[in-house]
């Protein structure tokens, strides 16, 4: 007897400014007094992950309780239309396999997805590991190491996506299309590996969208995937509904 049919589409989500409407790191520190060295986050490189490790350690040392941190993540607003997109996906779980690849952290992402009632939609969450130590301080680590020159030292999303697709192929799951929803410069790297049948959904006016536009101007045809910019995730939902027809 044949088992259930594998999903036809892989839907990859970013988290910050994609699923949620702001940067979750900003949400956690908002309204809290940080010492001068921790106020300015480093730009580029691998320094940002290390910077957030120090910020979270400082908050823990100042007595910020895990429950406060969890509440901060839970209260981040979803991006416009994201609740509607999740509703559509919950009705078609047999067709879409969802994974989340984010340079935020597992503690915050898990807290927000559960609060939004969306955790069960995602087969896997790939993010920087974060857990509470015995003092109740949230400790953050890098996700992995890699050789990609475009990405921060702690995470190359293209590497994660390629490894996931290879793992699923070994399990005899091949997707008709990969659909990638993101916003940031670090989403451009994996989006650039998509095929002509695939779809990139960059958030309109954000770095991923600008980088795709620049690459299309410099090298027409080099960016292979179809590009569907969005301001509300309802636009992503509409595209998926057309795809199902």
From TrEMBL:
Q: Where is the active site?
A: 14, 16
Entries under InterPro entries matching the protein: HAD-like_sf, HAD_hydro_PyrdxlP_Pase-like, HAD_sf, Pase_PHOSPHO-typ
Gene Ontology molecular function: metal ion binding; phosphatase activity
The Swiss-Prot or TrEMBL record describes its family as follows: Belongs to the HAD-like hydrolase superfamily. PHOSPHO family.
Tell me the keywords, alphabetical order.
Answer: Hydrolase, Magnesium, Metal-binding
State the source organism's domain of life.
Eukaryota
Name recorded for this polypeptide:
PHOP1 phosphatase
Kindly list the positions annotated as binding Mg(2+): 14, 16, 183
Q: Does the keyword Transport apply?
A: no
GO biological process entries = bone mineralization involved in bone maturation
| Provenance organism | Cardinalis cardinalis (Northern cardinal)
- Listed binding positions for substrate are 25, 103
Q: Per the entry, which co-factors are needed?
A: Mg(2+)
By its UniProt entry, which Pfam families does this protein fall under?
A: Put_Phosphatase (PF06888)
């Amino acid at each position: 007897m044949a088992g259930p049919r594998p999903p036809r589409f892989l839907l990859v989500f970013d988290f910050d400014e994609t699923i949620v409407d702001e940067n979750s790191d900003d949400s956690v520190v908002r309204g809290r007094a940080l010492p001068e060295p921790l106020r300015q986050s480093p730009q580029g490189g691998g320094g940002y992950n290390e910077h957030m490790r120090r910020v979270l350690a400082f908050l823990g040392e100042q007595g910020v309780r895990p429950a406060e941190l969890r509440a901060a993540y839970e209260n981040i607003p979803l991006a416009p239309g994201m609740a509607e997109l999740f509703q559509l996906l919950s009705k078609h779980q047999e067709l879409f396999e969802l994974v989340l690849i984010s340079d935020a952290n597992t503690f915050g992402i898990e807290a927000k997805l559960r609060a939004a009632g969306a955790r069960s939609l995602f087969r896997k969450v790939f993010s920087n590991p974060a857990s509470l130590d015995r003092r109740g301080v949230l400790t953050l680590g890098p996700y992995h190491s890699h050789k990609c020159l475009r990405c921060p030292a702690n995470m190359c999303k293209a590497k994660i996506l390629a490894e996931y697709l290879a793992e699923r192929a070994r399990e005899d799951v091949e997707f008709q299309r990969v659909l990638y929803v993101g916003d940031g410069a670090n989403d451009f790297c994996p989006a650039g590996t998509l095929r002509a049948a695939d779809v990139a959904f960059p958030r309109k006016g954000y770095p991923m969208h600008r980088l795709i536009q620049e690459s299309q101007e410099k090298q027409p045809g080099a960016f292979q995937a179809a590009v569907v910019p969005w301001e509300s995730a309802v636009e992503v939902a509409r595209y998926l509904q057309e795809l199902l027809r």
